[in-house]
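User: Could you write out the 3D structure of this protein bound to iron/sulfur cluster? I've included everything you need below.
Assistant: Certainly. Input first, then the structure.
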Amino acid sequence: MAKVTIDETVCKGCGMCVAACPKNLLELAKDHINAKGYHPATMTDMEQCVGCASCAIMCPDVAITVER
Amino acid sequence: MAKVTIDETVCKGCGMCVAACPKNLLELAKDHINAKGYHPATMTDMEQCVGCASCAIMCPDVAITVER
Amino acid sequence: MAEKVLMKGNEALAEAAIQCGCKHYFGYPITPQTEVAAYMSKRLPKEGGVFLQAESEIAAVNMVLGATSAGVRAMTSSSSPGISLKSEGVSYIGGSDLPALIINVQRGGPGLGGIQPSQSDYWQATKALGHGDFQLFVLAPSTIQEMVDFVSLAYEVGEKYRVPAMILSDGMLGQMMEPVEFPQKKDEPIADKPWATNGHKNQRKKNIINSLYIQPEELENLIKERYERYAKIKEEEQRAEEFMCDDADIVVVAFGASSRVSRSAVMQARAEGIKAGLIRPITLWPFPDKTIEKHVGHTKDFLCVEMNMGQMVDDVRLVVSGRKPVSFFGRTGGVIPTPAEVLAEIKKLAGKEN
Amino acid sequence: MAEKVLMKGNEALAEAAIQCGCKHYFGYPITPQTEVAAYMSKRLPKEGGVFLQAESEIAAVNMVLGATSAGVRAMTSSSSPGISLKSEGVSYIGGSDLPALIINVQRGGPGLGGIQPSQSDYWQATKALGHGDFQLFVLAPSTIQEMVDFVSLAYEVGEKYRVPAMILSDGMLGQMMEPVEFPQKKDEPIADKPWATNGHKNQRKKNIINSLYIQPEELENLIKERYERYAKIKEEEQRAEEFMCDDADIVVVAFGASSRVSRSAVMQARAEGIKAGLIRPITLWPFPDKTIEKHVGHTKDFLCVEMNMGQMVDDVRLVVSGRKPVSFFGRTGGVIPTPAEVLAEIKKLAGKEN
Amino acid sequence: MANTLNILLAGFGGQGILFAGKTIAYSGLLDGKELSWLPSYGPEMRGGTCNCSVVLSDESIGSPLVTTPDVLIAMNRPSLEKFVDKVVPGGTILVDSSMIDIKVERTDVNVYYVDATKIADENNMHSCAIIILVGKMFKELGFCSKEALDGAIQKVIPAKKAAMLELNQKALEIGQNA
Amino acid sequence: MANTLNILLAGFGGQGILFAGKTIAYSGLLDGKELSWLPSYGPEMRGGTCNCSVVLSDESIGSPLVTTPDVLIAMNRPSLEKFVDKVVPGGTILVDSSMIDIKVERTDVNVYYVDATKIADENNMHSCAIIILVGKMFKELGFCSKEALDGAIQKVIPAKKAAMLELNQKALEIGQNA
Amino acid sequence: MAVVFEKPKALSDVPFHYCPGCTHGIVHRLVAEVLDELGVEGNTVGVASVGCSVFAYNYFNCDMVQAAHGRAPAVATGLKRALPDNVIFTYQGDGDLAAIGMAETVHAATRGENITVIFINNAIYGMTGGQMAPTSLPGQVTQTSPYGRDVKVAGYPIRVCELLSTLSGTALAQRVTVDSVAHVREAKKAIKKGFENQINKRGYSIIEVVSTCPTNWGLSPKEAVQWLRDNMLPYYPLGVYKDVTAEGGEN
Amino acid sequence: MAVVFEKPKALSDVPFHYCPGCTHGIVHRLVAEVLDELGVEGNTVGVASVGCSVFAYNYFNCDMVQAAHGRAPAVATGLKRALPDNVIFTYQGDGDLAAIGMAETVHAATRGENITVIFINNAIYGMTGGQMAPTSLPGQVTQTSPYGRDVKVAGYPIRVCELLSTLSGTALAQRVTVDSVAHVREAKKAIKKGFENQINKRGYSIIEVVSTCPTNWGLSPKEAVQWLRDNMLPYYPLGVYKDVTAEGGEN
Ligand SMILES: Cc1ncc(C[n+]2csc(CCOP(=O)(O)OP(=O)(O)O)c2C)c(N)n1
Ligand SMILES: Cc1ncc(C[n+]2csc(CCOP(=O)(O)OP(=O)(O)O)c2C)c(N)n1
Ligand code: SF4
Ligand code: SF4
Ligand code: SF4
Ligand code: SF4
Ligand code: SF4
Ligand code: SF4
Ligand SMILES: [Mg+2]
Ligand SMILES: [Mg+2]
């Protein structure tokens, strides 16, 4: 099991992580924005996560921490 | 027959023409200097000159005119 | 009368240059001046002109030197750090007696500073934009309309006297929009330039554009001849606006952006019964000493308001020469003073008087 | 006392810098300043220092910015056109509160100008060597001995207040030889530089050398803090030499090369019974207004003698402020005035008085 | 100074702040007023906050920078928080209440809350929320003539973008009825 | 000013003008005088003319540029022509008559003609012609002490060039007897 | 559970000001990771240039100097000459490095200046709002090439790695990109090599990162990555243009 | 008898200020001969740079502009953009072109600026009295490399033709010399090609002339020529580095 933590306060909703996840587990929150005005990335199904860190590697804002 | 004219007033006595003449006809005047303080080039034997213009081609000060 | 349009200062200035026959623009991007280049890049190709983004401000100013040598109306624009980089080139332009046009849309300095409006390049523009004894004809617009009108003035005076000209603007004027109107194109031809290096066609003696004079006496004579032209410019081309000065006890002196703020403050002061007035230098070099002089007599106090730490105030003091007190109020680093602040300064002086 | 040696001004200055612990020189050749670099290139490698001929004056001044950031005593030197090129970099140095040392061995301008001695970069050095509100500590040597002595002064004052310093010399002082003596090396350690970016070794907070402040208020506060330091420098570091001033009717004000000529003229005037004196500003910024002020009372006439078209004269006028006439005599373009010419000017004034 | 209206529009980049300011400015132009329009500029604009000063006046305008607005149009919470106290007593604040979940506590100003972004979304005019607020401002303050307002929106939208024009006209109308 | 000697040395580049000036300057240093040495500089030096101002004085020196010399050492015709009228009345002109085939027409100055280049050539000291003139100047004007002159020539020639030193010492002597 | 990915120590807590999806952030992180791995943060001085990355001095935890536009190589040279045993790097955009700073770049390289240069080629001037860069592609529309870059007027884009690889002082000239996880890994290796070269005093190392500027390209972050692949990479082929370690020699 | 060699018309009567044996004079003459042969003197504007050739404005009979140190390519660009149908050339030294003017040079070349550049590489700063140039050879003693150019400190010499030939805008990059009659003839051909390229609007042409500076090399003119052959030519091989006409194409 792996754990992905997304720091919503720094996320800019760019979607780079969404595109990078080989398991397609991430999406941009449709219905809320953060204090910066962005729709932050959110995990849809933590169970499926393999902790490959692809999302984190592609995140330009270092918003993601991955544990495994 | 060829004619080489050296403009002594602009000659700087650099000897480039002397070195360039295939017939070894030129030398720097040993005993007089021009107004600029240089020993100007002089023709030693005009008869021998073939008018090849090598001297003129190598003269940095365009001091030489060649006729043939 | 042409229709009034809303335009950003930077764009209006660029359009004005095109309408003055400037078909050669060389520049390098820098905030808050980028719109000049952007506008030129759109319009000039359609006018058969040349927009060239240079590799640097240094290249740009030297391209302007080249194009001006060829006899065309050329122009470059930048903002403070970029203007510093142009200083050697501007000195060459001055030393070569070329009438090039340079625009400075000032921002806060020193160094990278900030990008908000400032007037802290006053000294540089009027005293030493480069080494050596020389001057630029320096104009300080205070409205978008003046951003437009001063372009042709700069070209005309520059060409008449063969001196480089500068429009010393700032980020506020560059970025803001106001209604503006472009004068009908004049049919006056641009002055002949018999000195231009554009190929002698074997029909005239060769021309040389040069600033090197290895014999000191020769260089000195040339500089003195140039200073005679400067003297003429001082005599004939100084300009200033006077606002409610005639009976003023307190005369504010301010140019460009800060003159607008000061004008509001002067009006408020009048509303409160204080006899305030405003002198707004339009030419920064030559400094409008005649206008200042006119009001030294009746004025009790001069107050300089600038967006810097106090630069033009010295030029005012040089004219007033101790006859009246000259004080200073300034904001810097990109802060625009408010009318209220200026009013407070006026009141301080008024209080002191009464 | 060390032995007196004969040295060219440029070389003496370079040697002085080395003796002050300057081990990093970055420069670019230009007449009449080349000997500084040539000397450094010979000596520094033997002192374990670095001589680097940069690709340009711009690179050189930015290398100095880098080396000074690292905490060492660094230096660059040039002459007028090269100094213009450094102006952006100098503004960055000023805006980054770095105590770098810049030498200007002035020649005639504007543009390529000439290579003979001049003082026409006075305004540039004292008012606007670059954009923005900032100042350099500017020293004007008049002898080779001062070329030596002012190097340590420039470093010390610069480091104390974290401001860049300039020695404003000229081709005459750079090229001439006079007997000179180097002070015994002081054992005083060079001031600590806790702000230096030399690697925090995980033992302190990181240091940042920077001139960018995107919030205008922040930038303004910083500039105001800097101007407080400037005020202190004005208060404590202004220097001038007075020569026969105490009873003088006519006070000549001149710095550097032209002060030597003026001194001869003053002596000749005294010999002819004219009460002349000389004030020689040593710091050009801060301008020694206290010294001028001291003599405004008894002086009947001030005469500024400069090797330019009239620059420092404005600073004198600002102090005198109309209380006494201030006149100007200058030669420019590389011409050095003669004592006879200056004497003639003094006599004109004396004639007017008497 | 009574005849001068200092307007400040503030929000995120991308909310049409500058565009709305331009619309107001043009309305002044068409009414033959003195006016100025000044954007905030610089790197902080990227994704960050954006604001715009517009001054309409009968007299020539001093500083175009509005520091004490008569009217504030606030499109996000940070902007409202930043400027709420700068509004002159008796001034007006227009709040996009879809974006801002707090209320203005001052009692010396007139505050209008409009669910602008939500209304715009519902009407498929996502980018027009601020224009709805401009319409509301017109209704409450009548800062210009009706013709000028209608003319202004036509000036700021290029003729070829007829669809956009229509949407914005509708937004103005919605605002005037809000 | 009576105790000031303004000396101008002038000729072609390559004739040792600056070196001779330095020798005179060092003699001043060794005598404990105030002194200055100023070369002409710049591109015209290349092959062109070269000159050098030296001032010796009991007082601190104003301008180091000698425009009206007390002493002129002229090593070629252009230099003599250029400066002959600048020499102060009562001044001294030393002429290398090997290089200059004209005479000074002024009668208010002391002129010494020395066949310096020829003498130098005859003595195999080609570069020392000007030093012969310095020797002559010493003889006629005694501008420094004998010790200072001897010391100066040792100062200006590096110790390792002993042969050069000897030649120059000889040249000085020849000059003093010329 | 162990942390397999987290923010490197050499990055500060200040959030980046970059636009959403801008690859500047990825490259910052890679540099910081390399500083961490080499353990040199305390010995490093970084030089921020003028461009979108101007605030880099806020992001890296090492000492930082902010240089004038284009002059980072000169500032870095001054630092390196004063601190020969410290690690000095510059972080420069394409306008900074290849336009106004071209002379400083060529000369730092030919001097074999022992520094590491991170070069962000995004084919545009990001900071100032999208003007043409020396690396903008033929036909590319920018604010100052509104009709597309016309090479007849505005000239041809410069391939920096190719240019600098002709110089003897260049130790490493490598072009990488960060459009995918694999490429990010490669980029990091190159950056690490650039720093190792410096530590081993091999000369000037430049790592050119072909990057995106979604904002000024007018594309979404995802589209920008695709545009990079379709347009930038063909013109700027990835690869090693010079590598003295591969040539088996020191410089 | 017919004149087989005389001063070209495009040269004025002002005698050169150059030192005895300095090859600047030969190259001036070649340029003038080419102007004569192409009949373009009346249509030409030359740009003098800052270096020993600064007074070139006195020597050529065409219109002339004197540019700031290193900025001749920019000045020429301004002239050419204003006068697209005139012939514009610059005459630059190695300090001017390859040190302070490197950015202007690279950018004029990459822009394919339609100008002709005569580049005098004499491995030294002549005018200012013999300082190290970017082209000074490793080990070369100059005023500012008194112990010989140490490449570890002062860096490596730049081979300009090689560098510029990587740029798409360069039409001709050729290195010639003038140490012999045959080489002088070759140099003239190259210069002529450089001007013809411009007339045919092919882009930026640079002719690098490996030259002597007897004065600052401390050699007689004859020795200087030999030093050039022994030291310069091995490091700076003569030849054509780029020639779009040979490649059969316009630029
Ligand atoms: C001397 C000077 N000229 C111009 C500028 C304005 N300026 C700031 S950033 C920049 C361009 C940055 O582009 P690039 O280097 O490509 O970096 P990016 O923003 O794309 O990352 C320019 C021209 C400046 N600050 N200083
Ligand atoms: C801005 C500036 N920096 C420096 C100089 C001084 N300078 C004049 S010529 C020159 C070097 C010339 O060398 P090069 O270009 O190789 O020409 P050469 O004299 O060898 O023919 C320098 C540095 C100057 N005039 N302007
Ligand atoms: S760690 Fe891998 S699997 Fe998990 S969310 Fe990130 S990319 Fe997807
Ligand atoms: S990549 Fe990072 S910033 Fe972008 S959406 Fe994902 S978490 Fe947010
Ligand atoms: S023309 Fe030929 S043969 Fe005659 S002198 Fe000249 S080089 Fe010699
Ligand atoms: S080459 Fe010319 S300058 Fe040299 S010696 Fe011969 S004629 Fe005289
Ligand atoms: S403007 Fe471009 S380069 Fe700059 S931060 Fe935004 S996306 Fe990145
Ligand atoms: S210094 Fe050198 S390059 Fe200059 S003219 Fe003399 S020999 Fe020629
Ligand atoms: Mg970029
Ligand atoms: Mg050279």
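The radius of gyration of chain C is 21 Å.
User: Perfect, thank you.
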